[in-house]
Amino acid sequence: MKLTTAGLYGLCLCLAATLTGCGSASNSSEKAEIIDGGTFTLGLSSDPGSLDPQMGAGSGLFTVTQFAYDALLSTDEKSGEIRTALAKTWEVKGNIVSLTLTPGITCADGTKLTAGAVADNLNFITEPKNQSPFLGTFFPPGAKTVGDDSAGTVTITLAQPAPFILKGLSGLPIICPGGLTERASLKSATAGTGPYKLSEAAPGDHYTYSIREGYTWGPGGATTATKGLPKTVVIKVVQNESTAANLLLSGGLNAAQIAGPDAERLEKAGLFSADTPGLVGEQWYNHRAGRVTEDPQVRLALTKALDLAQLQKVLTSGQGGPATTLASNEPVACRGDSISRSVPARNPQASASLLDEAGWKAGPDGVRVKNGKPLSLNFLHQNNNGSGGDAAAELAVQQWKAVGVQATARSQDETTLTGTLFGAGDWDVAWVSLNVSTPDQLIPFLSGPAAPAGNNFAAIADPDYDKAVRVAMTTQGTTGCQSWLDAEAGLVAKGALVPFASKPVRTFGKAAEFQVPGQLVPTSIRMLAK
Q1: Which residue among 115, 142, 246, 441 sits deepest, i.e. has the most Cβ atoms within 10 Å of its Cβ?
Q2: Strand ranges (DSSP E) for 8-72?
Q3: In terms of pTM, does the model score above 0.90?
């Protein structure tokens, strides 16, 4: 899950952010003929749920959002430089961000996108009562925005430093006036300026989008007049990864993300793939009062009980590596390694001692007990890691059992899992990947109000992290990267959360090529002769 970035946003939970650089492309059909029109069918592992682009953090929603909506800015997938999108110019001076809209932008319903409407979008996000997951991730709290329709300018006044404000604006979808007025309609319809418009919604099965003629304001000036763009896009919900792989091979799908062992047979079949590095193994503990994982000794014990290197190998089917930073979505703002030097080493004996100290004593059946209650964990993991994900989860259960912890692993699709996490549901441990590109996007997930009042779904409260963030926020851009890395290293060292696996996220294609800088870019799609 990209909590996209990252997808949650890339919130792979995507916040992915969104979810998730286009990375490298392999097995490219360079000699295949590019053809106009046609239908591009994309497989999605879970239904995106409500289609309101500013009210969800799952990578599925982020994926579909790209087709119907645009952001004010875009980011070059290789250099990380800010590029044009809805805005043609921008400037940051102190606490003032000024943007000028590209002329002639129209919404899918034919109305004009105004600077005032853009300001309404941003002010909606900054209103805490609206509970948008974009607040604090893509747009800073307390910011005030005004729009001048006659000049086409948008002015943002920041209430506090925002080192990566332009990067944030490049991931924030803008809704047209009709959608702002009829907000409830966005659950099953679209109201954007994007290259496609939703023409049919069949929740749980498929979503169909139709191309918009005259679109000229895409990322870096992309247009829908480009040869090779599909006329129609069908996003089909295919929860089983092996089924998606079979559909790719048979031509039933043009694209799908494949993470497990099925990737090998697709590669052998010569299919195109766009690969993006990302976190795929990230263990979160529920710090909420009343959970067994509220106790920091228990969290550290659970971490030390695990062979993280072995879990990484199993989860990634031997194709991944260790995690290095929490904000790892390309283009990465702060490169370095805050994790390998900080993650607690495996030590089952120390794990057992920590549990003893916390009052959890081994019972006659080996299961630890405290005040008559067994040490039992509700362990959730996402279903999009294929058979490797299921095997790794069971391995973790066995390693916890060896120190007297009883864990029950349950697989959930992205929509269900994000609902459980952000709805303050029943869980103790969760494997969910939060993929973002800038460290400030992590702040609302690692601090602040606990879900459902905020994005802090694990209810983390760490004064040392909060203090380190305040120092890092006084820097501008990448000049403060070491401070950001030190802040997240402190959390990892305590076992507050445990990133343990990274792997290129592979989106395979047949009879089509595309770019996937975290999320598939609609204007990069090129249909190919079969």
Answers
A1: 441
A2: 24-26, 39-44, 70-71
A3: no
